[in-house]
């Protein structure tokens, strides 16, 4: 049990470093080149549409610790998850709805990314 | 038949919990599992449309967190994916569509 606790807090620390390392970070099923789930694919397509191509993508199917850990970290129950500037931004629906409303363009402009 | 009853059951649970917590003016709960690569009769993929005055003044992220929190038990056990649309009554009356 103690070991579990220890490894779990280590995972949380690793995740914090991961989301801060790059401006845009995506936790998804599969990879941008080969998404393994429709919702993850939607996120990849939306980012591509907005010209965001240099983002960090982590495949949660490769690592059970990260798959469970990221849900705890962001207090968000599902994958995919998008982080911008180290902050949790949302899942597929939020990205899609902000894309439709035009708010995503504004968010990305803050990062110096022009759609 | 058993699977069908179960599906109605989870949908009812989702509806009841959201109704109780968010007092929606309009609520749609749709089982979209058939659109995904899961066995027939599955209850894994849901879409909800919630129109509630409680979303007034909240960001999209805060609204979705409210819905997720309400369905925490279901999300951690049986729901694989939950598509959420959370609107205020004003937003809904100006554009009453699911998309």
UniProtKB/TrEMBL annotation, chain B:
Query: Which InterPro entries does its entry note?
Result: BolA, BolA-like_sf, BolA/IbaG_stress_morph_reg
Q: An example Gene Ontology cellular component term from the record?
A: mitochondrion
The family database entries (Pfam families) matched by this protein are listed as:
BolA
Q: Which PANTHER family match?
A: BOLA TRANSCRIPTION REGULATOR, BOLA-LIKE PROTEIN 1
What subunit structure does UniProt give?
Answer: Interacts with GLRX5.
Instruction: Explain the purpose of this protein.
Output: Acts as a mitochondrial iron-sulfur (Fe-S) cluster assembly factor that facilitates (Fe-S) cluster insertion into a subset of mitochondrial proteins. Probably acts together with the monothiol glutaredoxin GLRX5. May protect cells against oxidative stress.
- Family of this protein: Belongs to the BolA/IbaG family.
Please report the name of this protein according to its UniProt entry: BolA-like protein 1
- Naturally occurring in which organism (per UniProt): Sinocyclocheilus rhinocerous
């Amino acid at each position: 049990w103690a070991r579990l606790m220890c490894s779990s807090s280590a995972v949380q620390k690793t995740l914090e470093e991961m989301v801060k390392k790059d401006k845009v970070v995506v936790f998804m099923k599969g990879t941008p080149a080969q998404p393994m789930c429709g919702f993850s694919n939607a996120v990849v397509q939306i980012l591509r549409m907005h010209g965001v191509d240099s983002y960090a993508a982590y495949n949660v199917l490769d690592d059970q610790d990260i798959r469970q850990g990221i849900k705890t970290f962001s207090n968000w129950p599902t994958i995919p998850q998008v982080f911008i500037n180290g902050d949790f931004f949302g899942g597929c629906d939020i990205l899609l709805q902000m894309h439709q409303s035009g708010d995503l363009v504004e968010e990305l402009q803050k990062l110096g990314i022009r759609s | 038949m058993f699977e069908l009853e179960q599906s109605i059951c989870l949908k009812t649970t989702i509806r009841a919990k959201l109704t109780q917590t968010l007092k929606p003016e309009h609520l749609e709960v749709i089982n979209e599992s058939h659109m995904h690569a899961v066995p027939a009769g599955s209850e894994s993929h849901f879409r909800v449309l919630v129109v509630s005055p409680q979303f007034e003044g909240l960001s999209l992220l805060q609204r979705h967190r409210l819905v997720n929190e309400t369905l925490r038990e279901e999300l951690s056990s049986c729901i694989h994916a939950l598509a959420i649309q959370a609107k205020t009554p004003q937003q809904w009356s100006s554009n009453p569509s699911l998309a």
